[in-house]
């Protein structure tokens, strides 16, 4: 018979005494095992973690590895306990109330292939960087996954322990791990349910250890790689287009633009296919299938690209090089979405729970 036990994971880096207050309240309210991970905090915090050991199992990192690694350390510990049950991940800085943590733990377990997240409303006085950051992340997540979530940066999450093996395989040691967890759920058809929780930012969110530039780069890495790939391909396309334009100038303006655009596009598209398949989307499916899909996309874009280019040159009087830039910018996001969701879409692998 399966023995059930619930767990609360709290990653902690340089916490204050709010961690202890949270643990005390949770102990009074919930029947669960509390797992605190000291993610390489300074020795000045030893007293806090020593006190935390009265309420929780405290695991230690020898240095600061990041929230993602701390969560995986706790999941590995729970996996070795051989008890099944609900797991909740919460923050140590007081932004998640005991009531909301208890709420996620109490949601009726109708299925195991499920991730429950605490969804903040972002109403009222919210720090500007937090408001803008969440807006940007939710749009980026939608572009990357095709799923719209109201709160992609929430750290309050709940799931069944049967998902531990999958979540241990997710890449990322810092805040990008949380985004990668959501992406994994979408790819593997793990349902995501958002539950409204209180929106709390203490002292302008000063306690957050989110590193605006470094962690944002990690979170948006797929989009950044696609932008880089597209930029390199555009450079090849643009330079080759200009070179061929000088060679074919005797054919007439419209014909020279069309011929140069077609040849340059074929070369740059082949280069772009190689980069996107192997490095951007890391597609593992059939080479032939992806090549045919990309070829169909490339031909469609080439037709639209050339038609727009001719229209801008003939009817609007733009020069070929200027028109080329306008056209490429216009079709960038369409190109990304089609490649992401059709050409290089890795099919989910279904496993029995």
TrEMBL record:
Keyword Transmembrane helix: yes
Subcellular location, record wording: Membrane
Bilayer topology annotation: Multi-pass membrane protein
GtrA/DPMS transmembrane domain location: 225-344
Regions crossing the membrane: 231-256, 262-280, 292-313, 325-344
CDD domains reported in the protein's UniProt record: DPM_DPG-synthase_like (cd04179)
Pfam hit, one: GtrA_DPMS_TM
Keywords, sorted A to Z: Membrane, Transmembrane, Transmembrane helix
Residue ranges annotated for the Glycosyltransferase 2-like domain, each copy included: 8-132
PANTHER family for this protein: DOLICHOL-PHOSPHATE MANNOSYLTRANSFERASE, GLYCOSYL TRANSFERASE
UniProt-recorded name of the protein: Glycosyltransferase
Organism: Lacrimispora defluvii
């Amino acid at each position: 018979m399966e023995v059930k036990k619930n767990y609360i994971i709290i990653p902690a880096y340089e916490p204050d005494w709010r961690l202890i207050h949270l643990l005390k309240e949770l102990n009074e309210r919930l029947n669960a095992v509390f797992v605190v991970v000291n993610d390489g905090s300074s020795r000045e915090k030893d007293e806090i973690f020593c006190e935390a050991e009265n309420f929780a199992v405290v695991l230690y990192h020898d240095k600061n590895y990041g929230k993602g690694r701390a969560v995986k350390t706790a999941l590995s510990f729970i996996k070795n306990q051989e008890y099944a049950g609900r797991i909740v991940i919460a923050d140590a800085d007081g932004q998640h109330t005991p009531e909301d943590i208890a709420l996620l733990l109490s949601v009726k377990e109708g299925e195991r292939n499920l991730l429950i997240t605490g969804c903040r409303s972002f109403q009222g006085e919210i720090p500007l960087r937090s408001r803008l950051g969440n807006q940007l992340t939710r749009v980026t997540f939608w572009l990357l996954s095709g799923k719209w979530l109201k709160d992609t940066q929430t750290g309050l999450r709940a799931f069944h322990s049967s998902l531990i093996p999958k979540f241990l395989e997710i890449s990322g040691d810092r805040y990008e791990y949380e985004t990668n967890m959501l992406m994994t759920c979408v790819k593997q058809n793990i349902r995501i349910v958002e539950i409204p929780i209180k929106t709390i930012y203490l002292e302008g969110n000063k306690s957050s250890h989110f590193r605006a530039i470094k962690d944002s780069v990690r979170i948006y890495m797929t989009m950044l790689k696609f932008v880089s790939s597209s930029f390199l391909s555009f450079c090849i396309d643009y330079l080759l287009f200009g070179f061929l334009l000088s060679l074919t100038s005797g054919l007439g303006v419209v014909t020279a633009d069309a011929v140069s655009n077609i040849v340059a596009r074929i070369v740059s598209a082949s280069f772009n296919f190689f980069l996107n398949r192997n490095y951007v989307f890391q597609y593992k499916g059939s080479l032939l299938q992806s090549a045919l899909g990309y070829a169909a996309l490339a031909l469609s874009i080439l037709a639209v690209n050339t038609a727009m280019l001719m229209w801008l040159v003939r009817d609007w009087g733009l020069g070929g090089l200027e028109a080329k830039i306008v056209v490429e910018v216009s079709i960038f996001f369409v190109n990304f979405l089609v490649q992401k969701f059709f050409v290089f879409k890795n099919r989910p692998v279904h496993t029995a729970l």
